[in-house]
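$ run holo --ligand "cytidine-5'-monophosphate" --emit tokens
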Amino acid sequence: MSKSDARCYVALDLPSVAEADAMVETLGDAVDSYKIGLQLLPIGGVELGQRLKARGKNVFYDFKFHDIGATVEKAARSVAGLKADLLTVHARPDVMRSAAKGRGERALKILGVTVLTSLDRQALIDIGYHETAESLVMRRVEQALEAGIDGVVSSPLEAAAIRAVVPDGFLVVTPGVRPKGADAGDQKRIATPSSALQSGASHLVIGRPITQAADPRAAALAIAKEMRGV
Ligand code: C5P
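-- output --
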């Protein structure tokens, strides 16, 4: 039986591709799926993702596109032409529709980032949103369904409310996951891997609890074991 769990995307938030490559070597068969984000994408992260795909790993490019529709459509088409499994865009209706159009029939799945977990009530008011994060998340989930994208990124604490209104195959991807006893870091609204899955998350994004652990491989294996128990 596999020791890993492909539903766990490890966030390779590291300063260089060389360090990311070393982390991938350390993790070996304990991890099947990787998320490459804004820190590495401008400095070789896309090429790193293509090498990971060639090794049979799942790859999530966390670009969080947010631009006019025509540009998002062409950008999504560019990413869909690469080998990759997941791509994020901001959950604005026109952005999501354009990304779905750009992706076309290709295998890439598009995720809408509902509301960044770093935005609290005051931060939302400051940028002109006078509804709660929870109601904004649910509005954007409805819009994601209408736009025809494949899923959303949300806090694990919103996963149950989202799961209740989306079809079975719709992806609910949650960062902000911390095993019991792990340092929360700057994440505020957190859940354990098993409780995130029980709430309806289809995939988890976990970074520092694995990449900053004294023994990253052991940390990844422990999380996979917890996930397989759900
Ligand atoms: O290290 P940690 O487990 O907190 O990493 C979480 C990852 O998920 C980071 O790459 C972060 O950018 C991403 N993320 C997040 N909250 C969101 C969207 C993405 O933490 N709302």
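-- notes --
Residues 11, 13, 37, 113, 116-117, 153, 175-176, 185, 187, 205-209 surround cytidine-5'-monophosphate (CB under 6 Å).
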